[in-house]
Specification:
homodimer, Arc Repressor Mutant, subunit A, Tetracycline Repressor, domain 2, 9 helices, DNA-binding
Chain lengths: 197, 197
DNA sequence: AGTTTAATCGGAGGCGCCTCCGTTTATCTG
DNA sequence: CAGATAAACGGAGGCGCCTCCGATTAAACT
C-alpha cells in the first residue's frame, strides 16, 4: 500500500505554471476586448500594458499576432458552437436554425475589422484556423440535420453550401439597414429550406 | 505674330521639378534592384538611403509601399509587353508565342518574393494594378491573335483562359527542376494550341 | 522551512514605419 | 543677375514590432 501518493502525474506536457496561466488568460481576455473595439490592428504593446504584463510575456505566449488572433477567434467561435446546442433545446428545430444563422452573421459582422487579417490568415496559414471553423461547420451541420430529420426542412442541403450562402450575406457592405437586410436574406434562405420538404 | 512666346504651357499638372524627377527615377531604380534581391519586404529606409535621398522624399513620391511596388512592377511588366513585339518580328508566330510564355513564367518566378504582397494588392487595391496587368494581357492577346490569323494555332482560345493556365504553371512550388517542368508544361500547352487548327 | 532549479517575467534596445515641418533650391519674374 | 516663391528636400521624432537576457519566482526537493 503506497502511502498518500502525491499526484505528481504531470499529465500533459502542456503544464503551465500558475502565474503563466493567469497571465495568458488575462492576455486573451484583454485582446478579445481590444480586437472587438479597435480591430485586429490594435497595438500589441497596448494589449500587454492593459493586461499588466510586459511585452515579452505576450510574445512568449503568442509568437505572432496571428496566434493571438487565432486564440481569441477560436474562443468566440466555440461559444457560437455552444449556442447551437442551447438553441436546439429551447426552440423548434427550424427556429433554432434561423436564430443561429442570425447570430452567426451578426457575429461576423462585428468582426469586420478582422476581415483583412483574416483573409490573409485563412489563405496562408490555414492549419491554424481549420479547427476553429470546424466548430462552426459542425454546429451548423447538427442544426441542419436535426431540423431535417424532424421534417422541418429539406434534407438535400449541403452544409458547405449553406455556409457559403451565409458568407455571401455577411459580406454585404456596411450600411444602416445592414442588419435588417441580412435578416431578410436569412428569412429567404429559410423559406427555401422549408419549401419542398 | 507673337514674339518668341515662352512655352509656358504647363501642359500636364504632373510637371515635376528637375531635382524631383531625378530623385524619383533614382528611387525606382534602386527599389527595383532591392525588390529583386531581397523581396518586397525590404526596408524602405534602406532604399531611400541607397538612392541618396531622405525618407521623407521617398514617402512624398510614393505614399505607401504598394505605390512603389506598383511602379516597379509596372515598369517590368511593360518591358514584358515590349518583348512581345520584338519576338514577333524575329520568329514565326508560334515560336514567338511559346518563347514569350516562357519569359512570362520565368519572370514571375523570379518575383516569388513579391507574391505575398502581390496577392494582397491584387485583391484589395485592384485599380492600382489593373493597368499593369492590362499590358501583359494585351501582349499575350496580340501574340495569340497573330499566330491564330496565320493559321499556326487555334483561334477559339480565350486570352484570359490562357493566362490562367500560365498562372497555374508559375505557382508550381520551388524545386530544382522548376524551370524544366514549366517549360514542359508550356510545351504541352502549345501542343494543345496547335492541335486542331 | 530552506534550498535549488527551471520556468517565467518584463523591459531595454535596435529597427522600421510614417508624419511633420523648418530648410534648401529650382524656376519664374523684373 | 537679383529677388521672390512655390516646390521639394530630409531628418528628427513618436510609435509599434520583435528579440534577448538578467531578474524574479513558482514549484519541486530535502
Amino acid at each position: 500500500m503506497a502511502s498518500a501518493e502525491p499526484k505528481t502525474i504531470p499529465s500533459a506536457p502542456t503544464r503551465l505554471r500558475a502565474d503563466a496561466r493567469r497571465n495568458r488568460d488575462k492576455l486573451v481576455e484583454v485582446a478579445a476586448a481590444a480586437f472587438a473595439e479597435k480591430g485586429v490592428e490594435t497595438s500589441l504593446e497596448d494589449i500587454a500594458r492593459q493586461a499588466g504584463v510586459g511585452i515579452g510575456t505576450l510574445y512568449r505566449h503568442f509568437p505572432t499576432r496571428e496566434h493571438l488572433v487565432e486564440v481569441v477567434y477560436r474562443r468566440e467561435l466555440e461559444s457560437l458552437g455552444a449556442a447551437a446546442a442551447e438553441l436546439s433545446e429551447k426552440h423548434p428545430p427550424d427556429v433554432a436554425l434561423e436564430e443561429w444563422m442570425r447570430r452567426f452573421v451578426g457575429y461576423i459582422a462585428t468582426k469586420r475589422g478582422m476581415s483583412n487579417s483574416l483573409r490573409i490568415l485563412m489563405t496562408s496559414n490555414s492549419s491554424l484556423f481549420a479547427e476553429g471553423f470546424g466548430q462552426v461547420r459542425g454546429a451548423l451541420e447538427s442544426l441542419l440535420k436535426a431540423a431535417g430529420e424532424k421534417g422541418y426542412v429539406r434534407t438535400d442541403i449541403d452544409t458547405a453550401d449553406l455556409m457559403h450562402a451565409l458568407s455571401s450575406i455577411y459580406s454585404i457592405p456596411e450600411s444602416p439597414e445592414w442588419r435588417d437586410r441580412s435578416y431578410r436574406l436569412i428569412g429567404l434562405l429559410m423559406d427555401g429550406l422549408r419549401a419542398a420538404r
